[in-house]
Design brief:
One of its GO terms (molecular function) is argininosuccinate lyase activity. The chain is built from 19 helices and 6 strands. By secondary structure, the protein is mainly alpha-helical. It has 3 domains: 103 residues, Orthogonal Bundle (Fumarase C, Chain B, domain 1); 232 residues, Fumarase/aspartase (Central domain) (Fumarase C, Chain A, domain 2); 97 residues, Ribonucleotide Reductase Protein R1, domain 1. The structure holds arginine (ARG).
Length: 464
């Protein structure tokens, strides 16, 4: 009655230190439902294909129900399984013996932990990735709701973090929503490759007993089967895809977080985070720190690290199962939990923050209308490159006189170039509203173009 499932030809127990490195129960306990689900399907298939009796199948099915209840209870009570087995597959099989007796000894017929573990992980992902999907859509909805109610706010747009052009605040929010929407689509696209059942691949060669893999896969809810047993036990491509996806999604969240961190600094003051989504300092009573956003920004690095780390594990591995692959689950759970938390914190932060439209407005300066002045000249027939230069001269002149573009006397403009128009025409350029309203073409920051984006995104969100 050795602890391992596989101890038959061994004289001694593995060393303690090897066990510490080898045992994965602390991590893969999280797969217990999927492991039991897979075993239910496997036993049923063994029975339907004539390899185990109706009674044995019944004992196994009932036993698995009991094992599931036991494990649930133990996790509720202790937060973990107090068991000396090396992994969740061993725990389930060993505990089944308690309830199903000798029938339990037939469960692993023609199955390997190689196809079993691969199946469990895919089932877990199929069950849980939809939570990331909903959290992403929730975040997009929050951005969209704000964007729909904050049309009026005009704020500086930055490139190189230097004041660039006035934009609608909604346009900024939507810029993040669009990237996240692509993440949703990318997540959906992974499902097709994820939803392939590896069970029946055995350790490497396939299943020596005749079984109906299509029926088995269907009973577990998979859309397809893995088409080659060696590919099935080797491939972690769905995880590589997932990790790279989480890291891209992390990058999007990091950019959003960084923007808001900057906007919430006192120097900008465009955004004020709610109490719920900011933290204080143990020393400085006045502090309101954007820790949540900073952790999101940091998480992007960790997600990327896990994506790279996992690909490094695969690089150089020979075909089929090698124990290196065991860490797929540690990284999966870690990245999954991290990203899910980040999505929720981002949504909460954005839903509850205040936007200070006065501050946004006062951060705009007339220099940001330099491009508009150039465009005004272009509309009067001046070639753009020359217009750019002429406005540059006006900026230089204003700086010499110690005024901004708006307060540069009309006469100065007229001297530089008569195409600046009449005094009234020139004055009409100096309006934030007029400025943003020029950008009506698709994807621009004018009200109509912003509303169009909102309609598009809403329609997409409402698609079934
Ligand atoms: N705990 C192992 C894993 O998750 C199960 C597969 C073990 N297979 C083996 N041949 N040792 O990867």
């Amino acid at each position: 009655n050795r602890y391992q499932l596989w101890g038959g030809c061994f004289e001694e127990e593995p060393s303690r230190v090897l066990r510490r490195l080898n045992d994965s129960l602390a991590v893969d306990t999280r797969l217990f439902r999927e492991d039991i689900q897979g075993s239910r399907g496997w036993a049923a298939e063994l029975h339907q294909s004539g390899h185990i009796s109706v009674e044995d199948n019944k004992s196994i099915q009932e036993g698995l129900n009991m094992v599931e209840k036991d494990i649930e209870q133990e996790i509720i009570q202790h937060g973990r399984l107090n068991d000396s087995e090396e992994d969740i597959h061993s725990v389930v099989e060993r505990r089944l013996f308690k309830y199903a007796g000798d029938a339990a000894l037939r469960l692993h017929t023609a199955r390997s932990r190689n196809d079993q573990s691969a199946t469990d992980t895919r089932l877990w992902m199929l069950r849980n990735l939809p939570k990331l999907h909903s959290a992403l859509k929730e975040l997009i909805t929050v951005l969209l709701n704000r964007a729909s109610s904050e049309f009026e706010i005009i704020t500086p747009g930055y490139t190189h973090l230097q004041r660039a052009q006035p934009i609608r605040w909604s346009h900024f929010l939507l810029s993040h929503a669009w990237g996240l929407r692509d993440d949703v689509i990318r997540l959906e696209e992974q499902k097709k490759r994820l939803s392939r059942c590896p069970l029946g691949s055995g350790a490497i060669a396939g299943c020596a007993l005749t079984i109906d893999r299509t029926r088995l896969a269907g009973s577990l809810g998979f859309e397809e089967l893995t088409p080659n047993s060696m590919f099935a036990v080797s491939s972690r491509d769905h995880l590589v895809e997932f990790f790279n996806w989480t890291s891209l999604c992390g990058l999007h969240l990091s950019r959003l977080a960084e923007d808001l961190i900057i906007y919430s600094s006192q120097e900008f003051g465009i955004v004020r985070l709610s109490d719920q989504f900011s933290t204080g300092s143990s020393l400085m009573p006045q502090k309101r720190n954007p820790d949540g956003l900073e952790l999101i920004r940091g998480a992007a690095g960790l997600l990327l690290g896990d994506a790279v780390g996992f690909s490094c594990i695969l690089k150089g591995l020979p075909s089929t199962y090698n124990k290196d692959l065991q860490s797929d689950k540690e990284l999966l759970f870690r990245s999954y939990d991290r990203l899910l938390d980040c999505l929720k914190v981002a949504a909460g932060t954005i839903a509850t923050m205040d936007v200070n439209s006065e501050r946004a407005l006062s951060a705009l300066d007339p220099g940001m209308l330099a491009t508009d002045l150039a465009h005004a000249l272009v509309r009067r027939g001046v070639p753009f490159r020359r217009a750019h230069h002429l406005v540059g001269s006006a900026l230089k002149r204003a700086s010499t006189l110690g005024v901004d573009l708006r307060h540069l006397p009309y006469q100065e403009y007229h001297t530089i170039c008569p195409e600046f128009g009449t005094e009234e025409e020139l004055a009409s350029v100096f309006s934030w509203e007029t400025s943003v309203e020029q950008y009506t073409s698709l994807g621009g920051t004018a009200l109509s173009a912003v509303k169009h984006q909102i309609e598009k995104l809403r329609a997409w969100l409402e698609e079934p």
